Amino acid sequence: MAGASAAGTAAGGPGAGAPALAAAVQPAAALPSLTVSYAPAAAEQRGKSMLVLDGSGREIDSFNADAPRYPASLTKMMTLYLLFEAIERGELSLASEIPVSARAASRPPARIGVPAGTTVRVEDAVQALAVRSANDMAVAVAEAVAGSEDAFAARMTAKAQALGMSRTRFVNASGLSDTRQVTTARDIARLAGALRSRFPQYLPYFGRTSFSFQGRVFEATNKLLGRVEGVDGLKTGYLSMSGYNLVATASRGGRQVMVVVLGGTTEAARDREVTELIERYYAGGV
């Protein structure tokens, strides 16, 4: 999901201590071949799934957590994961300028509208992805890191397998409609946990309620930020074929929780369900 309130940026990204909420599985040491033949089952359109994990990654509650689902813009968590790895390797920095191709600029909304043939700072692309879920920036990042979106998607799937996301396949960097792009609530939780534990310095981006770019203010897609006590990240997603998706993390009184809801019937219904699960957890009811 997106995030809470802004934190300052430095050369290595926003400063923040690593939350204790860890990945449910540890990443494998080596990245497998980029040729991945794994083919998950076809997902159910607007299929409902739910998963609640405590701060140690222990399952508290679930419903259809391993059923195939469409990730929609939850995909962008993996896009950012690979971008952060590229920064870690020294291939890019937050200050780097990356080109915006005609393909990137032509992606449908949500987008921030950078014209083809221009460039955008990596940090602006990160904010656009984490806060606003911008499809144009997803493609720009994919092309900058891997040369093409197809090559990047192969890396995404390979990384998913390395992280233990055994029922996930990616075919694009944005999450735009494609029936081949499949995941599960449990795999999404693994990705969210890995992102938090591997790259804590970037988590404040997911906690921002808005960001400014070229004189415009873009509001976060995650409406729980600043409205539900303790909610601090991570990402929303929506397609007509997926329904309304959200992975949310929260921390209160030293206790942390992650809630994944896929296939919500409306944005309001999804947000209400996630909020109720968070509140039940802190009340000791789940």
Automatic annotation (TrEMBL):
- Looking at the Swiss-Prot or TrEMBL record, what is one Pfam family this protein matches? Peptidase_S11
MF annotations from Gene Ontology: carboxypeptidase activity
- Report the SUPFAM superfamilies cross-referenced here: beta-lactamase/transpeptidase-like
Q: Signal peptide span per the entry?
A: none
UniProtKB keywords: Carboxypeptidase, Cell shape, Cell wall biogenesis/degradation, Hydrolase, Peptidoglycan synthesis, Protease, Signal
Tell me where in this chain the Peptidase S11 D-alanyl-D-alanine carboxypeptidase A N-terminal domain is found: 42-265
Name the Gene3D superfamilies on file: DD-peptidase/beta-lactamase superfamily
Return the similarity comment.
Belongs to the peptidase S11 family.
UniProt-recorded name of the protein:
D-alanyl-D-alanine carboxypeptidase
Organism annotation: Pannonibacter tanglangensis
